[in-house]
Write a structure and sequence with these properties.
globular, mainly alpha
């Protein structure tokens, strides 16, 4: 860490800056970690890294298990029932195979009400790229084609629910149905883009209020959206 501070952050590559930032966050949780690393053997350091990786994987798995059931309650309109019924512990029949989850996962710009498009999404004939973000990422499930930032990442369901809503049985970075890795990277790149710092600061301020939007009501838009539209390309 001292060496990096002496060299200056500007000398680091983008990937090194990400790793440096992640390590700083880790030190906040385990203050003496750096001292332990510097005084440990290479074998011990590898063992520490494996334990950290195991812990993050287990935490993600626990998050998924706890949400599988509760997500059904979140997407069910108040005083109504989902038709057909979605079991709380079974993922089959979700994703684009169910009207309720399908409309939430549909890219904000695709017309879910279009039966032909719906059939292609359901069959997998129409592949959705990771940067074609689903409607449930937007506040009130409404996408503003004139201002792609409007409501982005301000939905109550949000990113983690993307996996929970799908019919995929296990999380995988190489998931071809939801393009999970690029979905994650495209959002992370946007949030870390210095050119979008003002918009990101506003978004973080919104989240710091711990405001959660009630997931009721869905509005479909007819214009396609993806990461490029947020950048105005």
């Amino acid at each position: 860490m001292v060496e990096v501070e002496e060299r200056g952050l500007e000398t680091l590559t983008q990937e090194e800056r990400k790793e440096y930032s992640a390590f700083w966050e880790l030190l906040k949780i385990v203050p003496n970690l750096e001292d332990h690393i510097m005084s440990s053997s290479e074998q011990d350091v590898i063992a520490m890294a494996e334990l950290i990786h195991k812990g993050t994987s287990r935490a993600r798995s626990d998050d998924m298990k706890s949400m599988k059931a509760t997500i059904i309650d979140w997407i069910t309109p108040k005083g109504q029932a989902l038709i057909p019924h979605i079991p709380r512990n079974v993922k089959m029949g979700q994703g684009f195979h169910h009207e309720c989850t399908g409309v939430l996962l549909c890219p904000a710009g695709y017309e879910w009400a279009n039966s032909e498009m719906k059939a292609k999404l359901c069959s997998g004939q129409l592949q959705v790229a990771g940067d074609q973000w689903p409607l449930f990422l937007y506040a009130d499930y409404s996408y503003d084609v004139e201002d792609p930032w409007n409501g982005l990442l301000r939905s109550g369901l949000l990113v983690l629910a993307c996996f929970t809503l799908t019919s995929t049985q296990m999380f995988s970075w190489t998931d071809l149905v939801t393009d999970s890795e690029w979905f994650y990277i495209s959002i992370l790149e946007l949030l870390e883009d210095l050119d979008k710092a003002d918009e990101v600061d506003q978004l973080m301020g919104w989240w710091n209020q711990y405001k959660v939007i009630d997931p009721v009501g869905v509005t479909l838009m007819s214009q396609q959206t993806d990461l490029s539209l947020v950048y105005g390309e």
